[in-house]
Amino acid sequence: MRLEWITSLRATRTFTPDDVSQDQMTAVLEAARWAGSARNRQPWRFAVVRDRALLRELSALGAYAGHLAGAPVAVLLAVDATLSTQDAEFDAGRAAQNLMLAAHMLGLGSCPVSFFPAGNAETATRLAGFREPWHVRTGISLGHPAPAAKGTPAIPQGRLPLGDLVIDLP
């Protein structure tokens, strides 16, 4: 099993100015498209954003959205609100993870963002050009990772041991 593709995935918030090619975009969107979904509803649509001004506007839509301003491209995930919200949001998360893993396999960096509170999600939906029943609550920045900053990371690294996370039931 090739777990290193998963265990080496990190959120990338700083990018080089190099473009993400159309072939790379097609590959990551194909990976997202093939995510599983409840009843195969595929409750998502994707908006690809390359416009600098629009990326800056989106970067103001939440405390953790700032990295969108420096990304060469972002993908906005719209979810069909007429479906069970919990199922649709969960399935969109599966599509997002597929997209980010595919980006990582292609040497690209990515970082997810949630557009909350609700007013930010409404603005992101409008900026992306979606109409009812589609709602954008999630975006993903994509690009070629900038060199990592030197120094001690501000956020703890690694993961909890598996034994601390798993309960074996009889």
TrEMBL record:
InterPro entries: Nitroreductase (IPR029479), Nitroreductase-like (IPR000415). GO terms for molecular function: oxidoreductase activity. Keywords: Flavoprotein, FMN, Oxidoreductase. Residues 10-59, 64-144 form the Nitroreductase domain. CDD domains: PnbA_NfnB-like. Its cofactor is FMN. It holds the Pfam family Nitroreductase. Belongs to the nitroreductase family. This is Nitroreductase. It comes from Spongiactinospora rosea.
